[in-house]
Amino acid sequence: MSLLTFHRGLITVSIVFCVGYGMWEAARFLRVGAGSHLLVGGLFLFLGIGLAWYLARLNQILGYSPREE
Fold it and tell me: What is this structure's pTM?
């Protein structure tokens, strides 16, 4: 396993965690009504989207060109 493959896997797990925790905090906001839950949930959803953007553009960020066949 290459370091890049490990990095992609770690980022994928981080995306799942961020989105899951963001949704959990949003559900707590609906039950409790505290604005802090909405703020933290929104922050983690935003982080998950940012990590997904990073993962989708990782080859471009690292300067790899697409394989030409």
Answer: 0.80
